[in-house]
C-alpha cells in the first residue's frame, strides 16, 4: 500500500507528507518538479525515512508518472502539483496553463490507463484526490453567503481559471471514464514552510527585516484562513471516507480582512520579538497599488465536510497564527535559504512602482 503525492515539496504538499508519515505507516512516493516554490529543505526531517521516496519530475511527463504508478503499485494519488500564485499568473500566465491544465490532463491520462489495468479489487479501492482552491468560485459581495460546493464557477484570474479547468477535467474523467475521483476546494492556507511571496510569510519577514509591509489597495479584501495542518487532516479524511465523484469545500471558518490579518501579525511580533526602537511593527504598514482584478471576498462553507465526514478545523485563527509566527521566528535559517536571488528578482518585479 503506497500513495503518490504530487507537488509534495511545496507548501501544502510538504506539510501533507510530513503529517501523513506522522499519522500512518503507509509509504509515500513524492513527485515534485522543484520549481521556485518546491523546497527539499521542507522535507529534511524525513530525509532518512525509508517510507518516503522523493522523485524529481513533472506531472506532465506521462511516461515518468506511468512508471511510478506501476513500479510502486500506487493505491491513491493526491495531486497538489500546481502553479498557485495569482500575482505570478498575471505576470506570466503560460506557466499556469502548462502546469495546471496540460499537466493535470497528462497526469489524469497516466492514472486512467494505470487504473484500467488494475485487478478488480484494487480498481475498486483506488482513489485520485485533486486539491483545488476556493478562487474558482470567483468573488463574493459582503452580504453573500459563503461558497458552497454547488456554487457556479466564475474564476477571475489566470490562476483561478487554470485551476477551474483542471477541476473540470477531473470531473470529466469521472463521468466519462469512471475514474474514482475526489476534489477538495480549500480557502487560504497559512502555516509552516509557506513561501514568502504570500501575505502572511511576506509580512512576517518584512517586519523582522524593517521593510514596508505592503498592503494592496485599502486592505479590506476578505479571505477565509485555514491553518495548513487542518487542511492536511481534511484531505486525509476525504481520501479515507469521501464519496467518489464528490467535491468537498475545506475552510477554517475564519473570515478576515487582509489589513486585520497584518495587524494581528504585528501585535504578535510586538509580544514575541519587539523592535529594538520600541515602535510597533504596525508602523511599517504601507499601502500599495492594488493588483488587477483583485477579488474582494472569499468565504468557504465547510458544512458538508463536517456533516458527512465529521471533519472540522482544530485551530482557531488566533491559535494557528500564533503558531505560525513562532515557527518563522524559530526557523530563520529556512527563511534565509529560501530568499534567493530569484525571489528577490520577483519581489522587485511585482512591487516595482506600487509603493
Please trace the helix and strand order, writing H or E for each element.
Answer: EHEEHEHHHEHEEHEEHEEHEHHHH
Choose one word for the global shape: globular
CATH third-tier fold name of the domain at 3-193 and 226-253 and 293-315: Rossmann fold
Distance separating the two termini: 52 Å
- Strand arrangement within the widest β-sheet reads 3-2-1-4-5-6-10
- What fraction, in percent, of the residue positions are helical? 40-55%
Secondary-structure arrangement, i.e. CATH architecture of the domain at 3-193 and 226-253 and 293-315: 3-Layer(aba) Sandwich
- Major sheet: size, sense and barrel closure? 7 strands, parallel
Mean pLDDT: 93
**Low-confidence regions:** none
The number of distinct β-strands equals: 12
CATH class of the domain at 3-193 and 226-253 and 293-315: Alpha Beta
Oligomer: single chain
For this structure, what is the CATH homologous superfamily of the domain at 3-193 and 226-253 and 293-315?
Answer: NAD(P)-binding Rossmann-like Domain
Q: What is Rg?
A: 20 Å
| Residues in β-strands, percent | 15-25%
- Count of DSSP-assigned helices: 13
